[in-house]
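Fig. S4 source data, part A: sequence.
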Amino acid sequence: MKAVILVGGFGTRLKPLSINTPKAMMPVINVPFLEYVIRRLASHNITHIVLTISHLAEPIESYLGNGSRFGVNITYTVEDTALGTAGAVKNAEQYLDESFLVLNGDIFTDLDLTAMIAAHTKRGAMITIALTPVDDPTQYGLIDTDDKNRITRFLEKPGLDQVTTNMINAGTYVLEPEVLSDIPKQTKFSFEHQVFPPLLERGEPIYAYPSSCYWIDIGTPQKYQQLNRDLLSGKSNQYTLKPGNSLPGADISQPLVIGENCNISNHARLYGPLVVGSGCVIASNAVIEDCVIWSDVKIEDEAVVEHSIIANKCHIGNSCFISNSVIADNVNIADGYRLEPGSKIAPDSQLG
């Protein structure tokens, strides 16, 4: 079976992190997000993958190439203009001549793809949609089913008085190729709004595959940071924290991961959950707690950085204070600067 991964979005909710780095390439425990998705597909013997790309395509193609080092074969389709979820898959139609998977490129999940595909085949479904439970379904697409998991209703972002289930569209589909005939070429088109509901009204066999496995949408900085925390704490089966990362003389608490070629002072204080990327420098008496720090970041003496995301090649001066903030690439923060909690700092900014 083939898989289409939708990675052409602009990552608007992830700004300023997504201004220079496509959402699919954001590091999760120092590995690009998309690598986890591709390795999971390969583990389910899904080795022909189509990536639908547009925004910041070059870093994705440069890193993944033809996919051979991950044991897969990757084909790319490019959108000149945004085509939506269904329009992007229609753009890859020439590669889709049998049942195929579609995965939203901002979902991290332990979903059992092999079992989902088997259920789709056994039922003779035209469409199978993975479902996941959430605490607040009003922010998502709610889906009702009968006692055999056949879908009976779609309801996008329901009001509280309309909620009948906490199961939502989990962003993974198994589709038959004939679904594509309902999608116009080179037109912005949505599975959720313009394909699935009309097919349901026509009585086509559309089924749900509910699962309570680990699932998260990384569409915001908060959710992106939560994914890093969750993997460090063992909530997903796709990452196991390796022993190590001891730093003689430094005050540390687990869980934490330190990238390659870092220079960390003996008197630094590092408190997990914490991810530090490669090539970082953390000076004496700096305090770093509950952060995701990308590569080549320098944090000077007695700076405090907590509950924040720091992107590539930032410089944080002596005695700075940063809390609950998101700092994009190449930001320079002067000595003693106190950043307002909740700040989002654009790339190449100079503060102080």
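Fig. S4 source data, part B ends here. The first helix runs from residue 33 to 43.
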